[in-house]
Design brief:
The chain is α+β, with helices and mostly antiparallel strands. The protein has 9 helices and 15 strands. Among the domains are: 144 residues, HSP40/DNAj peptide-binding domain (Sandwich); 118 residues, Sandwich (HSP40/DNAj peptide-binding domain). It has a 4-stranded mixed beta sheet. Strands 1-9-8 form a 3-stranded mixed beta sheet. Helix 2 packs antiparallel against helix 3. The longest helix has 17 residues. Belongs to the DnaJ family. It comes from Acetobacter peroxydans.
Length: 379
Amino acid sequence: MATQLDYYEVLEVSRTASAEEIKKSYRKLAMKYHPDRNQGDADAEARFKEISHAYDILKDEQKRSAYDRFGHAAFEGGGGGPGGFDFSGFGGGGLGDIFEQMFGDMMGRRGGGQARSGNDIQTHVEITLEEAFSGVKKDVRVITRVACESCHGSGSENGESGVQTCPSCHGAGKVRAQQGFFIVERPCPTCHGTGRSITNPCKACHGEGTVERERVVEVQVPAGVEDGTRIRMTGSGEAGANGTPPGDLYVHVSVLEHGLFQRDGANVYCRVPLRMGQAALGTEIEVPVIDGSRANVKIPAGTQGGAHFRLRGKGFSVLRSSARGDMYIQVTVETPQHLTKRQRELLEEFETEAGEDIKHSPEHTGFFRRVRDFFEGGE
């Protein structure tokens, strides 16, 4: 049996890592090993799948709790819960699914014998801040299982006529077994939960009904999406075996850093450096807006570094809302460098004339007066 990798080691985090640390490490590794960045590299593709699977387990509190207690046995066949209890019959759905299937009959929730759908898959897409603002359609490349073209997903060379009811579970897809004081249901080991038996298996898919293919999926990223958002595309995951429903596709969105803007929720910040003379005398500046327009901002005389100017309604659209955030201009005052002789003379003249007049530099003058009083009071 192949050695199974520890999910924490796969994501390069400690077992005590927070959800945010796990998410941050996943995004970093997913970007590094994404198939789009490593085309033709089978090792990178396999690594990407391992990372995605590990994250799917550890990002879910219930699944992570089960994994921490029972390891891989909580989700795979072959043993291992307490007292020899086998979690393999519960499909890796987490503790909630375990209890639902254990007590489903008593609560009137019967599975009805329908087979599990195809596996969910995950991928990653990068967008610019402008695309996050306006929304965008992106084509993403995924390697997944699709319905076999030869047998149209039936798994049989004879099509649907070669599909019969499973003799072990009589089409229910489940069998019952005694586990201590409980009678539990699990997928039928003969038909793997499909409730069907294949005669004359398809040579192309070996009776699976699905084959591995690369396909391109168009993802609609909505306006206002934030970095780290996960978009669910129902039915765009792996095709289910033998004609069962497909799983879902989860697209993790990363928003690239911008050269001018920083985002905080629906608000946008833009850092604008002013020359010393502009801040002292006052001026009017033109600044860019995230929607591609421009705005004029009046800077009053005597503006200090760190001042903020608010532009209402110039920020991001709030997701699924007509509301819009604000834009903040953050002012810094730049000290002049590489002065000419004349410029130095003018500044020295200004310093001499200003002296200790508190009206010119109230914070500076006030601070050094307090310093003087501190030393004089200490004598």
